[in-house]
Amino acid sequence: MCRVLVLGVLPALLERDCDTFGEALHEYNRFAGRMFAADQGGDYASPETEQLVRATRALGAAGTGQSSWGPTVFAVCANPEAADKVSGGLREQFPDLDMTITTANNTGAEVRATDEHG
C-alpha cells in the first residue's frame, strides 16, 4: 500500500494526472479491502458493492472504490462531462441508486470555534 501511495497516488496528484491518480487510488482501495476480506467476504463489503465498482469502472471513471466499510462507493472523474456520463450510465443500470456529484476541496481542514450552543 505504501508503494502505491508513494509511487502512484501522490505523484499523480502533483502532476494533476486524473487517470493515473484514479487507477492508483483504485489499486490502493483494493489492497485495503483485502485486509478485511475474511470479515466482509471479499475485497468489498458485499457483492452489490463489487458490482457497482465494476460498473463504475466500465463506464469510464478514472478511479473507484469502497469508502471505509461501505456500502458507499466513490468514483473519480476527470471533469464534469465524465461525471455526467458515469452517473447517467449508473442511473440506467441502478435506478434506485442515491448519488451525489461533487468537486474536490483542496483547502484542507478548517477548525471553527463554536459557542456553547454548537
UniProtKB/TrEMBL annotation:
InterPro entries registered for this protein in UniProt: GHMP_kinase_C_dom, GHMP_kinase_C_sf
Highest taxon above the source species: Bacteria
Pfam families: GHMP_kinases_C
Domain GHMP kinase C-terminal: start-end pairs: 10-95
Name the record gives this protein: Beta-ribofuranosylaminobenzene 5'-phosphate synthase
